[in-house]
Design goal:
The protein is mostly beta strands and 136 residues long. The protein is built from 1 helix and 9 strands. Helices cover 11% and strands 47% of the residues.
Amino acid sequence: MKKLILSSLATVLALTGCEEPVAEAPAKEEKLGDYTASGTEPFWSAEVKGENITFSTPDGNDFTLPVARMNRTDTGWTVKGFSDQHNINLYITLGEECSDGMSDRAYADTVKVEVSDGGTLNGCGGDFEEGPDGPP
């Protein structure tokens, strides 16, 4: 009887070691969502909408690129897009209030943009928080 119990126990232990590990569910990728930023001197605007980034200026340096990378950082977001002709990097600092310098509007975030044929541009983004006539 002892042999039978020990044999059964050995079989159970052997089978337990053969179970396949349970796969963890993949982490859900965090997305920025639709976002608009702009700057003055020189004037420019950038918009993240869906899976695209659109950049435009009054002189016609306009393009739309697919979002290649979107990463949450300690201070905000980095969004990048590139093609054979253009590239753009948006560095968004959330919660760092920003004034556009011309309309006295206050925006929620500070944005730095590196763009092909445009260098590094500074501006504001996110929600319009306050203007010369008070909050929106």
